[in-house]
Amino acid sequence: MTMTLTSTASAGTTLRASAAEKGRYFGAAVATNKLSDNTYVTVLNREFNSVVAENEMKWDATESQQGRFSYTGGDRLVSHAQANGMSVRGHALLWHQQQPGWAQNMSGSALRSAAINHVTQVATHFRGKIYAWDVVNEAFADGGGGGRRDSNLQRTGNDWIEAAFRAARAADPGAKLCYNDYNTDGVNAKSTGIYNMVRDFKSRGVPIDCVGFQSHLGTSLASDYQANLQRFADLGVDVQITELDVMGGGNQASIFGSVTRACMNVSRCTGITVWGVRDCDSWRGSDNALLFDCSGNKKAAYTNVLNALNAGPGITPSPTTPGPTTPAPTTPPPTTPPPTTPPPTTPPPTTPPPTTPPPTTPPPGGCSASVSLNSWTGGFVATVKVTAGSGGTSGWNVSVTLPSGASVTNTWSATASGATGTVRFTNVEYNGRLGAGQVTEFGFQGTGSGAGLTPTCAAS
Ligand code: G2I
């Protein structure tokens, strides 16, 4: 997909007109119960050409009882958008928060099936009406590790995110599919963890089209905010500012302006959404974090955003239909192996550090394997690290003997033969070839206990 920078002299007088002249959208999060408030609707319709439901498309709202779907709020917002020339962002198919009670109480394969069914049903219901879906929201942990956040969804297996993206693509092939998170407003451990996941998804053909940067901001902005957007764009995904709000006071207007300029300077930054219309509509209480005061008057921050939109370069947006739909997982992944070494400052994105660190010099001969386990009552997820020996590998297999009563239910990045007793995992096409000392990972989920697993690795 191509986008061209264009330099159009222009001076739109509303956010929506100025953004549209530059090939972008400017959106707001909407609470549908406010659509009967005249001041609110006047500002919304005049200034914004994109909306997202603040709560109405979340799991608790759309499937409060398992298998019984209700789309009242979401449908109402879509109708409002269609009547007023606005596109719709969908938020959010899977998230560890705002799950209905029944899902909060589920785990393992029952939760995995319920989650994938949820993605399929909701994305199918809104098919053709959504510009971009937040398929997965906030799945990475805060703090320095750069890994996944623990949650009931994460405990169903590390591949839950890619399973969700595949289900969403199958249900609505025309929507852009985004990963969305916060505290990613610069190059940091968390954004790098996400970056590594996106790079891995792109290398394996997992269908991802965009990354959302929530940008709930305080009193300063990371100096590498734009550079961080750009490094994601360089992976071949769109980027979007999805939930922008900024602490009121001294720096607010300038930060709003800087964020807008950063987006304009990144040709794959396709739009900005603020998380509410007026200060009093914001989840941030008394922070006065938005562009309009409680009476609907424009604030200084508004003027900075409008000026930045008008001053920025334009783009010719790619069609709303994303690039070729990624083939179903039966198609072999690309023959080029994904990068096996993460950037130096960050640990691997998804796994806790191994209990035994990988050797600094490659083991002699074929390969070695180590396992790290995430267990709960009745089940576990094992992540296995395969390290090539001094001769490298052109393929490998790892054997594991499960305790009695345990069985493998799901495997990723390897093919399992057998499910109980001694199970043999063989590389898939893209991760068999490793240079001396290179490392790759695969994983599997099991029922029963995974205690005491001792993997043995053989190279071919
Ligand atoms: O927390 C701010 C945002 C962070 N990123 C994901 C967004 O989805 C999230 O939005 C907020 C909404 O702005 C709040 O309105 O998500 C909150 C839930 O985690 C929303 O709050 C909920 C309250 O917790 C519920 O008690 C309330 O019933 O809003 C519901 C509807 O008003």
Report on the structure:
By secondary structure, this protein is α/β, with parallel strands linked by helices. Helices cover 25% and strands 24% of the residues. It has eleven helices and 19 strands. It has an eight-stranded parallel beta barrel with strand order 2-3-4-5-6-7-9-10, surrounded by six helices. A hairpin with a 2-residue loop joins strand 12 and strand 13 (379-388). It starts with a strand and ends with a strand. Residues 320-360 have low confidence and may be disordered. Ligand G2I is lined by residues 54-55, 97-98, 137, 182, 214, 243, 283.
Termini Cα gap: 39 Å
List the total number of helices: 11
- The chain-level structural class is alpha/beta
Give the overall shape, derived from the CA principal axes: globular
- What portion of residues belong to β-strands? 15-25%
Number of strands: 19
Task: State the helical fraction.
Answer: 25-40%
Order of strands in the sheet with the most strands? Answer: 2-3-4-5-6-7-9-10
Mean pLDDT, rounded to whole units?
88
Q: Measured on Cα atoms, how large is the radius of gyration?
A: 23 Å
Described by strand count, sense and barrel closure, the largest sheet is: 8 strands, parallel, barrel
Order of helices and strands: EHEHEHHEHHEHEHEEHEHEHEEEEEEEEE
Low-confidence stretches: 320-360
- Ligand list: ligand G2I
